[in-house]
Structure formats: C-alpha cells, structure tokens
Amino acid sequence: QNFVCLESLSERGKCVGVLADGSLKPALACSNTDEHAKFGVYLASTPYSQYPRQK
Length: 55
Hints:
With 55 residues, the protein is mostly beta strands. The chain has strands at residues 6-7, 15-18, 24-25. 0% of the residues lie in helices and 15% in strands. The protein starts with 5 loop residues before the first strand and ends in a 30-residue tail after the last strand.
C-alpha cells in the first residue's frame, strides 16, 4: 500500500500524525511506522485528458 508521511526535517524517522479525535500527534511521539502518521493520497482531478497509467 502507498502512503505519505509528514516527516520531521530535523529528526529523521519522526512524523506528524493525526489522532482519531482530529488532534495532532507531535513528531516527538510519532514514528514513520505509526498508523497515525500514514496518509493516503487521492487524485480528485487532473488538467490532463488522460493521465499516465501504471506499467
């Protein structure tokens, strides 16, 4: 599965997360393997008539 993590620039492997109640989990308490730090990407629209397909 493909996810995006918002990783800290100053401390590698530490990521910002979002808890179930919508509050942010700070990078000091969250790693890149934490489920709270994984964000799925969804393409809502594109200016191209046909966007590239995966090979």
